[in-house]
């Protein structure tokens, strides 16, 4: 009787998970089918004719390609800056006994909970005062600063898991603190580094609100904003081109995840360095 009840409960769990998987899969299938369908509509349907005209139309527009390169430049720059700054900030928080470390960490934790809508108005006023509006560099620096609290918090947790004995051995051999970070800490922290980098890149790549507010020139808008140009007036939407744009829009994140898996697996394999 107990075994039968366990089977029923297990079946219900699998049924719920299957329904959730289908709900997530349907939009992806629509995006893939509609991107190669010349007569794509809002509903999911198999294309009567497969064509790449939607992708050719997207790739032939200089404005769309420019928005992709701008978005990649912003997201990549932000991810690199956040990783470098978070490693440098997390190291003393993890390795040294600081007087106000707990208060500082609690402040960081509080800052991670602040919504962007709560700070964008004073930031916009600051940009106007400093004449930084419509500046991609200033916006990238602001996005970097807004990503630092969560990045530092995650990076410190990853760094806490690395034994200090490894660095002390390197110091005995004559290595400096920065050499220890470069040759000992960084290789062992590859999973954490790529986790922070992916989190930062995807957050920046999909950020619509900040560029829409801080950038006024249409030629400077990233792909996260230009995607809305496919929604015309009176509900007119070119679903085929929208789907093709969406497929291309997901490629950088998919490629980043694919590349990072190899490095993250190497990082985890280095986790046994203290054994032996």
From TrEMBL:
Taxonomic lineage: Bacteria, Bacillati, Bacillota, Bacilli, Bacillales
Matching PROSITE patterns: ABC_TM1
Keywords from the UniProt entry: Cell membrane, Membrane, Transmembrane, Transmembrane helix, Transport
Organism: Niallia circulans (Bacillus circulans)
Record field: transmembrane: 12-33, 68-91, 103-130, 136-153, 184-205, 239-259
Protein's name in the database: Sugar ABC transporter permease
Gene Ontology annotations of biological process type: transmembrane transport
One GO CC annotation: plasma membrane
Primary location group: membrane
Subcellular location: Cell membrane
Boundaries of every ABC transmembrane type-1 domain copy: 68-260
Membrane association type: Multi-pass membrane protein
Record bears the keyword Transcription regulation: no
One Pfam family per UniProt: BPD_transp_1
């Amino acid at each position: 009787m107990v075994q039968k009840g366990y089977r029923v409960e297990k079946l219900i769990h699998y049924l719920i998970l299957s329904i959730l998987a289908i709900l997530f899969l349907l939009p992806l299938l629509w995006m893939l089918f509609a991107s190669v369908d010349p007569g794509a509509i809002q509903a999911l349907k198999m294309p009567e004719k497969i064509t790449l005209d939607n992708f050719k139309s997207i790739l032939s527009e200089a404005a769309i390609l420019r928005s992709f390169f701008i978005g990649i430049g912003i997201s990549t720059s932000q991810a690199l800056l956040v990783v470098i700054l978070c490693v440098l900030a997390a190291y003393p928080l993890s390795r040294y006994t600081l007087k106000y470390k707990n208060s500082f960490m609690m402040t960081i934790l509080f800052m991670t909970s602040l919504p962007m809508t709560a700070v964008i108005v004073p930031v916009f006023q600051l940009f106007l005062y400093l004449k930084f509006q419509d500046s991609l560099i200033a916006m990238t620096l602001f996005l970097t600063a807004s990503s630092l609290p969560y990045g530092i918090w995650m990076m410190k947790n990853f760094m806490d898991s690395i034994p200090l004995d490894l660095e002390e051995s390197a110091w005995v051999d004559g290595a400096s603190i920065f050499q220890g970070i470069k040759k000992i800490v960084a290789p062992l922290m590859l999973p954490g580094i790529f986790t922070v980098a992916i989190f930062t890149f995807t957050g920046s790549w999909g950020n619509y609100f900040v560029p829409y507010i801080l950038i006024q020139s249409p030629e400077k808008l990233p792909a996260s904003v230009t995607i809305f140009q496919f929604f015309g007036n009176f509900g007119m939407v070119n679903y085929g081109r929208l789907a093709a744009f969406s497929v291309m829009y997901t490629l950088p994140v998919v490629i980043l995840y694919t590349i990072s898996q190899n490095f993250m697996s190497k990082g985890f394999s280095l986790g046994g360095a203290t054994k032996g």
